[in-house]
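[job 0412] stage=fold_complex status=start
inputs:
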Amino acid sequence: MRLAYYPGCVAQESGKELDMATRWVCRALGIELVAFPSFSCCGSGFVDEANEVLNVALNARNLAIAEKAGLDLLTICSTCQGMLTLANVRLADPKVKARVDAALGPLGIHYGGSTKVKHLLRVLTEDIGVEAIRAKVVRPLAGLKVGAFYGCHLLRPSDEMQWQTGEEPHAFEDLLTAVGADPVYYRGRVMCCGFPIQFVKPETASRIAGRQIEDAKAHGADAMATPCPLCHISLDAYQNQAAKAVGHRLDMPVFHLPQVVGLALGATPEELGLPRHLVPTDPAVAKIGRPVRA
Amino acid sequence: MFADEKLINVPFDVYRYDASRGGEPRYQHYELRLAPHTPILTGLLRIRDELDPTLSLRYSCRSAICGSCAMLVNSKSRLACHTPVGPEVREHGRIVVDPMRNQPILRDLVVDQQPFWSRYEKMEPHLILDPKHPMPEGRTTPMSPAQVERFKETPRCISCAACFSACPAVEADPAFPGPMALAKLYRFVVDPRDTAQTHRLRTIQTEGLWLCLRCHLCTEACPKDVRPSERIRDLKELAVQAQGGTEAGSRHAIGFLKNIEERGTLNELKLVRQTSGVTGLAASLPQGVRIWRKKPEVTKSPPPIEDLDQVKKIYAALKDEKAEES
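[job 0412] stage=fold_complex status=done
writing structure:
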């Protein structure tokens, strides 16, 4: 399958390892990624708070680029998924649509509303399918207990995201099972990572992140995995701050979604950018051993 | 009950605790035969009336109007009268009932709602009129349908506190007023009769508005579709457009806005500088260096996107002047 690849800002900057892992996994599964250097930032929820219509218009332009190429759009970030989906939802309001059309029309951009926004987690579990992925596993993540951490905007508001329930999803756990890992169910898996207020009130953001990591740990997780690079910043890059906030060490390796799949499909840690993490992933990788099938 | 509906076995595990006696909380197990559509509240009342008269819970109307019976149903904040047993048993095999979060537990499923109400009262949830131009006795102020449309959701609120219970910002920080309080505040900010908009927005910007995580757990929990997280979003947009970047939160939103206008993409380092200022940037330097060692891209400016002029023209057509000045 061919998809318009919308990596989002973070995966092209500090979260480059997510882009590396996504490309590796898509290559392994026969998903062709088409790049569009004219895509702009989704606004990350912040632009929406400053100017709602402008945010919808910027994302309508992104969606129009994919539509013109006749492709559905692949996201690899829960927030990008949320913001681009929200643009589709808000454009159903004729008043919003009229203002957006008036801004885009003079630029020769027309968005007809047909672009489907699909996060990688949805492509893997719905379009490729967990059985097809299971069949390609060469290194089952046997014995590794992994706590999925969804990221709010992939799920909620659930009536707008039109996917699984907003509080009890299961796609990520299904995928983890398919690659041989043991999914860990804990309350924090659908909670917030604290990232949106990292620059407003860092100590509160860290307390929130710390609580979710503690929760995963208390339920036996050896590692966490997230489909959102913003959650990854909170849970991995700022984990030392989260540990400070909760008053003890956390030592929790945090994978990006395609890294978990990539490991099972035989990629090396270097190919997936694992050495770029702030919290070492080696203890988790050591648990699963070498590929059993070449 | 519908005559042809089959009864199912419903295992309940109910939280039991009495703050006046202390001791350890425990879960008590009960089983009932119920039709799948039966509300959880009906099940709990049957437990109290037929099996265990010591079970304490708060309820009144049984019809999702009074807002008394919010509690945790398999970890989710829900109105017990508005949540049927069937889907919960199908999904979880049993129904675990706990008291709401973020409020002290008095006994069993009854919490002390003081934290919820005191934060609400701080919002001055009443019309503030101009003392120089009081509304004449017996007169009404006409409102256009468009004005009423702006706050059509909030009057549906029944103050059940399900949103307050579901909110991770409330859980982590006592400075956050909570979803319901902010949704109600929004209702007064856009009410054309209210004269305290500037005061309300300025106060709330320093008193917790920007601690909302926009996780939408409140909107998920709300039994009345008030959509508190979206009302908070509306409130933030009003604050930014009326008052510009006065707080870290509004500066961050405006910083994002400017980042995208300049390059079409995010410039991580520049954004931190815009939000936190030079002193804030200095304070976050040790953390920045830790991250930079593994991820050197954080200090590099990303190249602008192609067709950036299109983005700039969209801004020119739709941007808000006040936010741009600050």
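[job 0412] summary: Chain B touches chain A through 70 residues (CB under 8 Å).
[job 0412] exit 0
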